[in-house]
Amino acid sequence: MKPCRWFDPDRGHIRNDQSSIIHKQIITMEKKGLNLTLKIWRQENAQTKGEFKTYRIGNISPDCSFLEMLDQLNEQLVDKIEKPVCFDHDCREGICGMCSLFINGRPHGNDTGITTCQLHMRRFKDGDTIWIEPWRSAAFPVIKDLVVDRSAFDRIIRAGGYVSVNTGGVPDGNAIPVKKKNADLAMDAAACIGCGACVAACKNASAMLFVSAKVSQFALLPQGKLEAKERVSKMVARMDELGFGNCTNTGACEAECPKEIKITNIARMNRQYYISQFA
Ligand code: SF4
Ligand code: FES
Q: What is the pLDDT of residue 167?
């Protein structure tokens, strides 16, 4: 077997000359960490005025996530006895929908089909300036810094986003036949994680994509048909009451939705709504 020219079998470690090359490579890699300027929205609460504050952060690994970069900033701020930046997060896996950040003018940053927690720093360049804001919508008031109150979504769900029939025990998978196409569409609609990016992206702050996804996931299945009329009219009424705007078909919500929910759901909800009002 040809001996490895890097490995010294007598000494049991990497040859000195080679180890110094590797050491230099590691140093070079470390030097490739990103140096960034962050313009972050700071706001004490919904009653006070907010403003952008500038922070400089260095040596950020391109492999870390956007939220890990903010964690590092907060560690530095705490070390300096300054208030850390408040931001929402939970699962950090694209599941919970908590990480609601407007980054460089786009909800969840400049990638598509991902949440902020799935955004990696390799998407930025050394020397970049990054603007970080909370969701902007009257229905989502700022709690502090980058954290907004999205309980308006919960109130819409409470108005009708459920099935109230007694389903008993777990039924056999084939007990209620569901067309494959409908099952797939219902599953796609159910992928909505309630992050609110659709509202943040929409110039009207419309919540139609969110509400239509929740209406559709039931409307497409036999279990949801029983309360279909009541559900859609109550959910739409609550959405309007809470101050969300109307849809004007710009498609911004679909373009920015991390779960790629389709605006065809809005058309389905509108059909359901007309039926509920006139049929
Ligand atoms: S429709 Fe998309 S953008 Fe809107 S809340 Fe659901 S997952 Fe988020
Ligand atoms: S923290 Fe859960 S989706 Fe980002």
A: 67
